[in-house]
Automatic annotation (TrEMBL):
The name this protein goes by in its record: TEX10-like TPR repeats domain-containing protein
Gene3D superfamilies in the record: Leucine-rich Repeat Variant
Alphabetical keyword list: Signal
Species this protein is from: Brassica cretica
Signal peptide limits: 1-18
Protein origin, superkingdom: Eukaryota
Domain TEX10-like TPR repeats per the UniProt entry, residue ranges: 461-813
Keyword Signal applies: yes
Length: 843
């Protein structure tokens, strides 16, 4: 018992701590960070492990400690990477994985990594295999959190990976150990700059010179790894060969072996793709070659290994009646091998039989004909099949354009099946659109196929005619795919390659028309709900589409789109501009264009409910500003279409028909403004038009004064608003004295009729209505009188104003029971103001 007690006293040194720790962060056991860090070097493994757990606990409850002391913490903990105790190494790994790295994501991790790398390299060179594996596992963790680490130390890291993979025979019975190294290597090589999509985005967003400089710098930064990659590929191919006996074992291979094989093939694929990209980049940009830059696929030593020992093993055929899981593993490995084949097929002269084997696999994958080997012959699960298609589809265009006629037709048919079957929400949609683009427009240049190649042209027409219906299926839920479709349609339209079918035009109509129904009960009119960038593409496409496909249904669809209340005002104006440009280019007839413009201003909905006046509503509750901008744009475009009088002569009947329909208040103002823009002085309007306007304007003017609250009659804002609606009338009065006279006569008639009504009716509600109408007429006359120019115009109709005044005065002494004292007072005030105005008129 005594010996036991003494032993306990040695392994629990924290029990002797007696210093004052107030103000310091501590762990659950009351130890400070400094004390815990010291214990990580304790000679007892259990103490070291507990210290690491204590640090994790302390940092979880005191995150500020990590941010202020992270370098001191890392400097002390990095020693544990080579700890001779497995549990300590595992705890060290978990501490960095769960706490230290995630907490430092927003910080500059470069200094931290530079502190760790010497210890990682030291551990990679340890004699203990377990320590070496932990070094590779920890480096993999570092790269996950700070990807630039690989490019900074690529050459030395690849050398260490090559060394440990070459010595895999030391632990061939435990595939999980080999997988530690292989998974890290696959991840590192996936970081090599070999994705052409990144390349394209640089070219789109940067000046050419800047892009070339970046490419040159990138080429120089990774040039030194090319030779090392050649060695890595050779080692990986030999490692792959070691697994061949397992591949043909009855019952297939286990999960660990599959994982190793998958990482081996992915690593080879990344290395090959990178080497090809670097080679092409240097050729394209005339960059200098480097001594160690031997393109591995062209190398006489590596090329035979790739074609014979790697690709020559394709396909990895499973035995019959294997479990579904094992079948899926074979399919995945065959898919990765196929990706490698697609990379090297441009550079190596592969045997025809080998090429055909890969092409059969590609065709069957596109057609979804790859099945399991068990009795049920079920297809490969959809997620795995879809992932494989996403990897293979980018290579389809070059295969189609390069294969002989037989294989070309097979691939065209197989791809068409994939394109038709993919759902809008699937990522395959975007991938298929990219294939269509790259077949028709490879490298950004339109591809004119031989007229004799009718098979290819027929498939191209099928793909293009599908695009509008796909656009409607996508709706507004998949904007990236919609933009890709629209960009392709725009590019096709620019070169006149649309060749639209009737269904094509119908789908385009549905795309713009918010009232239509798309395919499969998908709501039409997706245009208005798409992001602005997609809308701009759609409108640019629309311009080219009208060249050979303009029709009345299309025009009606565009009008409906413009009247959509959810459409942004800027987009509405852009539509008008596009249609006008199409008219000027001769794609739209002048009568159709006039119809389009007049229908917009006549039917545009300013207020949500009929009978409302926009002046009575808050600005944000109406679309008054949008209609104003639209009206100005329409007037501008019409004024530049030729002589105003001639344009008005064409439009006069249409505009006055709209006036006869008693449009909403703001729409009536818009029509009046168009007439004023095109008319001249004296007016060129016909007698019938003058009559129509004289019947409409009194009610229009009365509506204006109805919208002015009594307490805001002198408000400058309301006066300016009123002027916007009054000015068209004033211009018309100036240009036609007859119109002025007729309008005043009709207003005098309104006053006279309502005066008689007040004398005869007993109902006070009816009387109040008549009284308000008379008051409004007086207000209209006073508004006209307040304008100096209009005052001169209405002077010639002073007799009509005097008759209005007589009726108002007569009401002041009326004995009608429907006229209250308040009403008589109102008439008295109105009469006095009207009398002053009348006396100031000079006849």
């Amino acid at each position: 018992m005594l010996l036991l007690f003494m032993f306990a006293a040695i392994v629990l040194p924290e029990q002797s701590v007696g210093a004052d720790k107030s103000g310091f962060a501590t762990s659950k056991k009351g130890l400070t960070l400094d004390e815990l860090l010291k214990q990580t070097s304790h000679h007892n493994a259990k103490v070291r492990k507990n210290a690491l757990h204590g640090i994790k606990d302390l940092l979880e409850h005191n995150p500020a400690e990590l941010h202020s002391l992270k370098y001191a913490i890392v400097d002390k903990l990095r020693e544990r990477l080579s700890d001779d105790d497995k549990s300590v190494r595992d705890t060290f790994y978990l501490l960095f994985d769960s706490k230290i790295f995630p907490s430092c994501l927003e910080d500059n991790q470069g200094p931290m990594v530079s502190r760790l790398m010497p210890y990682i390299f030291k551990a990679m060179a340890e004699s203990s295999v377990e320590v070496r594996l932990m070094a590779f596992k920890f480096f993999h963790l570092v790269v996950k959190h700070y990807p630039p680490t690989f490019s900074l130390y690529a050459d030395k890291i690849l050398e260490n990976y090559k060394d440990i993979i070459q010595k895999n025979h030391f632990y061939v019975q435990d595939r999980s150990k080999l997988n530690v190294a292989l998974s890290g290597l696959a991840h590192c090589l996936s970081l090599l700059p070999c994705d052409e999509s990144d390349n394209e985005s640089h070219k789109e967003n940067e000046p050419l010179l800047a892009y070339e400089q970046d490419a040159a710098n990138e080429s120089a930064r990774f040039a030194h790894v090319s030779g090392r990659l050649k060695e890595i590929v050779g080692v990986l191919i030999n490692c792959f060969q070691d697994f061949i006996p397992l591949i043909h074992t009855p019952g297939g291979f286990d999960e660990k072996s599959f994982s190793c094989l998958h990482h081996i093939l992915c690593s080879i694929g990344h290395a090959i793709k990178f080497s090809i990209r670097m080679h092409v980049q240097r050729q394209t940009m005339c960059l200098p070659a480097y001594e160690d830059d031997t393109l591995m696929l062209l190398d006489q030593d590596i090329a035979p290994l790739v074609s014979k020992k790697l690709l020559g093993s394709f396909p990895l055929n499973p035995e019959n009646n294997l479990s579904g899981k094992v079948d899926e593993r074979y399919f995945i490995l065959n898919s990765v091998l196929t990706k490698i084949f697609l990379e090297v097929s441009d550079w190596s002269h592969l045997h025809t039989d080998l090429c055909n084997r890969f092409l059969v696999f590609i065709e069957n994958t596109l057609l979804d004909k790859v099945t399991r080997s068990d009795r049920q012959r079920k297809p490969i699960p959809k997620p795995i099949h879809e992932k494989t298609l996403l990897a293979l589809l980018p290579s389809i265009p070059k295969l189609i354009l390069r294969m002989d006629s037989d294989w070309r037709e097979n691939l065209l048919q197989a791809f068409t099946s994939t394109f038709n079957d993919c759902k809008p929400e699937s990522p395959l949609t975007l991938a298929c659109i990219s294939v269509v683009r790259n077949v028709i427009i490879p490298n950004g240049d339109i591809h004119y196929l031989s007229e004799s190649d009718s098979t290819v042209n027929n498939y191209l027409r099928v793909w293009v005619n599908k695009l509008p219906s796909l656009l409607n299926q996508l709706g507004d839920k998949h904007p990236l795919s919609s933009q890709a479709v629209l960009k392709l349609l725009l590019d096709l339209g620019r070169v006149g390659c649309l060749n639209a079918s009737p269904t094509f035009e119908e789908d385009i109509i549905n795309f713009f028309n918010p009232c239509s129904q798309g395919e499969g009960d998908v709501s039409g009119g997706a245009f208005a709900r798409l992001p602005r960038e997609a809308q701009d593409l759609a409108l640019a496409f629309l311009y080219y589409f009208t060249i050979n496909n303009f029709s009345s249904p299309l025009l009606e669809s565009i009008v409906s789109c413009c009247l959509n209340p959810h459409l942004e005002p800027a987009v509405l104006c852009r539509i008008v501009e596009v249609v006008h440009d199409a008219y000027e280019a001769g794609y739209i007839q002048i009568t159709d264009h006039f119809s389009f413009l007049t229908t917009l201003v006549a039917r545009f909905k300013v207020v949500p409910e009929e009978g409302q006046f926009s002046m009575e509503c808050k600005e944000q509750e109406t679309h008054r500003g949008t209609l104003k901008a639209l009206t100005e744009l329409v007037c501008l475009r019409l004024s530049k279409m030729g002589d105003g009088s001639l344009v008005l002569q064409i439009l006069e009947k249409v505009l006055l028909e709209q006036i006869n329909l008693k449009p909403w208040f703001d729409n009536g103002c818009a029509i009046l403004r168009i007439i004023c823009t095109l008319d001249s002085k004296p007016t060129s309007l016909s007698e019938s038009s003058i009559t129509t306007l004289s019947e409409y304007l009194p009610g229009y003017l009365i509506d204006i004064v109805k919208c002015i609250p009594e307490d805001k009659q002198n408000s400058s804002i309301y006066i300016q608003t009123c002027l916007y609606y009054l000015i068209p009338c004033y211009f018309m009065f100036e240009r036609s004295s007859k119109l002025t006279e007729e309008v005043l006569k009709r207003m005098q008639s309104i006053v006279s009729e309502n005066t008689k009504a007040l004398e005869s009716v007993q109902d006070r509600e009816s009387g109040r209505h008549s009284l308000n109408l008379i008051q409004c007429v007086v207000s209209v006359v006073l508004l006209m009188h307040n304008d100096v120019k209009v005052r001169k115009i209405i002077s010639s109709s002073k007799s009509e104003i005097d008759l209005i005044l007589q009726d108002v005065i007569s009401l002041q002494t009326s004995g009608s029971t429907s006229l209250t004292v308040e009403g008589k007072h109102m008439m008295k005030m109105a009469g006095e103001r009207l009398k002053i105005a009348s006396n100031s008129l000079v006849t």
